[in-house]
Amino acid sequence: MKTLQSVGLALLGLLFIGLIAPERIRIPVAGASTKDWNAQSFWFEPWGTSGVHKGIDIFGKAGTPVLSTTDGIVLFTGEIAKGGKVVLVLGPRWRLHYFAHLDRISTHALAPVASGSPIGTLGASGNAQGKPPHLHYSIVRLLPAPWKIDGATQGYKKAFFIDPGAYLKEP
Question: I want to staple 68 with a disulfide (CB 3.0 to 4.6 A). Which of 9, 17, 44, 113 is the partner?
């Protein structure tokens, strides 16, 4: 019964986050500024086996806290081949916030997070091993914006991927 209540509360939280909560987006690496990433790296090509870079890389010192960029619900934590240790947060406006190459994860699935709350630490896991520590950060729309499609390589995917640099604010 308690598990059913937890699932019900999580679903209510998801509904609130997706429909009502305001976006309070902030830079996800503690102490970082807009100078810590290349503003031209979103949709840069060629980009390894991905073809184009569908996010931005925010550089910093290994072990620096990684913070949730927005209020939301953690949907997934774990390890995947390219992203290494990753966290996926569902935020307002039904947007997924993807944090990759973490050294350590400090949250769990279905945990509520607030903008600025710690979710892990900066690292170089996954296909970033041997490279300077950084956070790969992407924002993905669940509801497509077809007017964003263009003639770029994989340009149809721009209906889903949002340039995070356009949304990040100084803390």
Answer: 113
